[in-house]
């Protein structure tokens, strides 16, 4: 378990280089209700004042409802304890056992090192085995080759194109929809070589 002076939070998994720290609506509520801007910035690994303002606005508007929720993980570097990025689920609809997968490394220097590959296996396992998901979907730009290769490595299958789905630089771009279903996960997981250990 790793803790912080801000909010004690268990690290759900440990991989070779990372702690994966759970971030849920409950933790979010505690964070924004009781912590300073500096503490919020440190805990979330926020990179700018603009990003902090966006996070506070999202919280104010309500980022979880009775119908849609989230369940994310922070990627913490084991040596420094710094937050390197996020990976987990948003647009989680428990009633229909589905959620959208999202992930992001904050700095270019941490990319192309296999960190997200290392984190994704345990997080997919958590989604299917602990969150009772049947379907995990992801949407990505067709030019995002590293992300495409990462998802294909874990068995995601292409379903088609979602037109005009994301605004990027004021332009509505299409997204490629891919998904992984529970029976596919169960057939593939033994080949993933997961090394994570619950803490």
UniProtKB/TrEMBL annotation:
Pfam families cross-referenced by the UniProt entry: Acetyltransf_3
TM region(s), chain numbering: none
N-acetyltransferase domain: residues covered: 18-183
Protein name in the entry: GNAT family N-acetyltransferase
